[in-house]
Amino acid sequence: MNKKHKQMSALLMACAMVVSMTACGNSQEKTNTSTDSNTTEKVETSEGEVAEAVAVVEGDTPAEKAKIEDTGEIVPGWQQNADDKVKLSWYMHFSWFNTPWGENLVSKTITEETGVDIEFIIPAGNEAEKLNSLIASDTLPDLITLGFYEQQVNQMIDAGLVYPLDELADQYDPYWYAVAAPEKVGWYTQSDGHIYGYPNSSYTAADNEKYDNISSNQTFLVRKDIYEAIGSPDMSTPEGFKAAVKAAAEKYPTINDQPLIPIGAHEFTSIGCTSFDDYLCNFLAIPYEKDGKFHDRYTDPELVTWLKTFRELGQEGYLADDIFIDKRAQMSEKIAQGRYFCMLFQYTDLANEEKILYDNDPNSIYIAVDGPKNSKGDDHTLPNSGISGWTVTMISKNCERPDRAIQLCSYLMSEHGQHMTWLGVEGETWDYVDGVPTMKPEIKELLQNDRTAYDKQYGADSCYWMFQDNAMALSWAEPKPEPMGQLERWSYPYVISTSEYNMTLEADTEESDIKNKINNEWGIVLPKLLLAPSEEEFDQIWNDFMTKREEWGNQQLIEKQTELMNEAKVKLGITE
Predict the structure, then answer these.
(1) What is the pTM of this model?
(2) Helix (H, G, I), strand (E, B) or coil at 152
(3) Hey, CA dihedral for 477, 479, 482, 485, is it positive or negative?
(4) Which of 17, 95, 125, 517 is most buried when burial is the number of CB atoms within 10 A of its CB?
(5) CB–CB of 365/485 below 8 Å?
(6) What percent of the chain has pLDDT over 90?
(7) DSSP class of residue 500?
């Protein structure tokens, strides 16, 4: 895959480096033309790739700071320190993360190659409480990975608790500039000219144009055998949806002597349920902006119509208590039992359970079909992760070895690191076949048949996803096998980029306080709406919620979101 690296913004640093790399198993030369008045020298990277290092004439540059051998090779920092053993702590802001370090082939090999051992720190309960405690006590671990959308991201930056990654790269590892995508760096560069966190699962505009097999993990799922037994009905309209749910419950009241759960959803939390707000809005193709302003999607009549549809089903007993109280562990168990008829759900979250169902009975699996649509019948608009990605990884100023932390980041961001975390160790789990990295058949068989055993023994296929580059992986990705393949392929036609709408409010501002109040109230209101005994009571709850939002300053919030949206468009080069 060709990755283009251009000169970093002057806001990022006074001296910059542009590297254009051809990433492939065999060394190939590619020449880019730069319009900058810079001197250019050819350097060969440690992976046999050819790059152009563009050095700014005036001042020290990252290229000059890098150790460049007589062969013209830029030496990655991790290659210089493998014999210096260090242990770094890594906070993962996800209580469900449970992949240990040092027990499988991938993590052992990374430690051998970099000299860095990892101790993961995982919150046992509420993630926000744990992270807030670490911030308040100034006891942040060496590395921190959390959703880009979390307010603690800006909080840590504003409080000076995390290092600028570009400064660490300047001082300890200019190779970082060779593997950091300029578009992503530009997107995450703050107003002070520094970047403090690098994303995973991020797609640039060029990625979206290049690939037609980028998926969204938002799906409407139905249990295959039940859906087909009731005639494979159209569930895209409120009437069709209600009829299908009732037919399924009537024909299959129990599954293996357990009550059928007619409608499934993601976990209800203190701020709502992503199935009934975010996902539903996307399936209904509710726009993110209208008339040049950020659109308050909650007020869209299409959403209200469908929430009332679910309320009607709830009134008739088709919204089981389970969906309001179950946590992820309970949901996983019930998915593996095939107890849900339909779900607005993130399909990647049921990979293991889908395999169990498939092994027991291929007809009992979940398949993706068209779900709720708006009154015009418009296609779904399902987002990929966009340029913001999913998480960002930051380096705490409590880290006593920031040199090794930034070098580890560079390792994981590089093509070599991506091969390692996606495919494993070359020669042991994969080889080049006709120039394409290809998993060995026996390894692939284990991955497909026993994911738990695969993770424990090998730990590839993005077990360590903190820097996963989904676009790069498409260059060697094979079609996903069934039954998961159908779920992925179904989403292709509906995927859109929503990068300009992925915004994070600064912590401790009026707007962030307003949003927090609204979100917390929504967490209380949503179950009440779905369980309202009458449409009149639904309307009363809804109107009270709308009134509170306005009293708290919702219009001020929308104005700020519009401002951030327009700033994002400028960053992305989006013109009307």
Answers:
(1) 0.77
(2) helix
(3) positive
(4) 17
(5) no
(6) 78
(7) G
